[in-house]
Design a protein that fits this description.
Number of domains of chain A: 2
Strand content of chain B: 5-15%
Distance between the termini of chain A: 32 Å
GO cellular component, one term (chain B): CMG complex
Order of helices and strands of chain A: HEEHEHHHHHH
Largest sheet of chain A: 3 strands, antiparallel
Structural class of chain B: mainly alpha
Radius of gyration of chain B: 26 Å
Pfam families (chain B): PSF2_N, Sld5
Number of helices of chain A: 8
Oligomer: heterodimer
Distance between the termini of chain B: 50 Å
Radius of gyration of chain A: 24 Å
Family (chain B): Belongs to the GINS2/PSF2 family.
Number of helices of chain B: 7
Strand order of the largest sheet of chain B: 4-1-5
CATH class of chain B: Mainly Alpha
Strand content of chain A: 5-15%
Order of helices and strands of chain B: HEEEEHEHHHHH
Number of strands of chain B: 5
Keywords (chain B): DNA replication, Nucleus
GO biological process, one term (chain B): DNA replication
């Protein structure tokens, strides 16, 4: 059951293509004739050097390299100082921290659609896969006339009660 | 794997039954020969066959050695006090427990108690799995020992654990690649087309 995602930037990966739609602020280094409409607030025909615009990443990647770069990309907002603290400066660390919550969410099978909206695309896919697997396992555990189950007393005991999802996310 | 597939694997386990009929040896494609069956003489058969015969009322299932309240209580206590996983009496204890108690609870004394203890053991082990998976991911361990875990238990953390580890690997691999690329280029705006990193330092 391979995870159908690209493992490194991949030309054919839909996820990667969609990710390049994200905008990043970039500063123009040259005057660009006839492209004033990209910056409607100025109302001029030509785009002047020094203008800062948010351009999609796929465009920036093309025009920031080469012999004569047209724009100078800036760090996207989500990687600015203030956000770095949130990300702990590392995608890997963030993923690891959120992983426990993700696992708990998937295990405590609650059909609450709002939970999924707080996950990013990658996490949502992991969530969906593991949620399905967990549902199957639970179905297996309770199927066939005689169930193997914990005693009523144990189920009712406070410690064993289902964890509140709201607390997990916050 | 689906739990059903794991169950299928577990059904190859041999258990003891007391048949109520006579029959010659049965030659199975996998698992070898079974029988001959003589009424009220115990014989060892694969679990799936025992279940089938029981459903036709053609045998009594003898409980496996470990399926006794005292032994299971002991296992449960060991499991509780140990930090690591203890060895289970059977590679497929959950499957055997579920199938045998499901169709032959009349052959097993104190079936209800056994059912509860097995589930308790399962729950203890599941919570251990969850906390150790969490530790593994947080501490960037490069490997994890899965000694004494049964197939059903290992399967319970699929696909989330392998996929998560894949992702971590993927993020790290990209970072490594970027480092190699940036070593070859002095400035960000160099001619290399591959340089896709953003200008961070200057």
């Amino acid at each position: 059951m391979p995870l159908p995602s690209a493992y490194c930037p991949n030309y054919y990966s839909i996820d990667d293509i969609l990710a390049t739609q994200e905008r990043s602020p970039s500063k123009f280094l040259l005057n660009v004739p006839k492209m004033g409409k990209l910056n409607p607030s100025e109302g001029e025909i030509d785009l002047k050097a020094g203008t800062t615009l948010e351009l999609p990443t796929w465009l920036v990647l093309e025009i920031c390299t080469g012999r004569q770069p047209i724009v100078m990309p800036d760090l996207p907002k989500i990687y600015k100082e203030s956000y770095r603290e949130i990300l702990k400066a590392d995608a890997c660390a963030t993923f690891k921290t959120r992983f426990r919550q993700l696992m708990d969410l998937a295990d405590n099978s609650i059909s609450d659609p709002s939970v999924q909206q707080r996950l990013d695309t990658l996490e949502r896919r992991l969530f969906r896969d593991s949620y399905n697997a967990r549902t199957k396992l639970n179905a297996w555990l309770i199927e066939s006339g005689a169930t193997i189950e914990a005693a009523n007393m144990v189920v009712n005991h406070k410690k064993r009660k289902r964890i509140d999802v709201e607390d997990l996310i916050n | 794997m689906d739990p059903d597939e794991v169950e299928y694997l577990g059904e190859k386990q041999f258990i003891s039954i007391i048949p109520t009929f006579n029959s010659n040896t049965i030659h199975l494609i996998s698992g070898g020969d079974v029988g001959p069956f003589r009424a009220s003489i115990p014989v060892r058969v694969p679990l799936w066959m025992a279940i089938n015969l029981k459903q036709q009322q053609k045998c009594k299932i003898q409980q496996p050695d470990w399926m006794e309240v005292e032994k299971l209580e002991k296992i449960k206590e060991d499991e509780k006090s140990s930090r690591t996983f203890t060895e289970m009496p059977s590679e497929h204890y959950m499957i055997e427990g579920k199938l045998i108690l499901g169709c032959a609870s009349d052959d097993i004394p104190r079936a209800d108690e056994i059912r509860t203890i097995i589930k308790d053991i399962w729950d203890i082990r599941m919570s251990k799995i969850r906390s150790s998976v969490d530790t593994l991911v947080k501490n960037t361990g490069s490997y994890a020992g899965v000694d004494n875990l049964t197939i059903m238990e290992i399967n319970s953390i699929r696909p989330i654990l392998p996929h998560a580890l894949d992702q971590i690997y993927r993020i790290k691999a990209t970072r490594k690649q970027l480092r190699i690329q940036s070593q070859g280029t002095t400035t960000f705006l160099s001619n290399t087309r591959h340089s896709t990193s953003f200008n961070t330092a200057s």
